[in-house]
Amino acid sequence: MLLVGAASREAGLAEDLQHALKAALASSPWEPRVLAKSERAFMCWLGGATFCAMSSAEALTLTITITVTVTLTLTLTLTLTLTLGRLRDSR
Question: Does pTM top 0.85 for this prediction?
Fold first, then answer.
């Protein structure tokens, strides 16, 4: 199992998951491994960049168009007061 994404950097997640998988698959002939590389927070971006750099990427892309219609009634009251003198003094 390969952990990717910033949320996978939670302290102890990889170790806890490894322990839980070993316990769940104790009677299995397979030995589960959890890979948690240090760059996992950026792996999805690295994968996307690598894919886009491939010469065959355009032929492999799939475009999906989703149309969502939402009707909302929204009342918003916003009061904003700025004093420019105070902003200049705070710098």
Answer: no
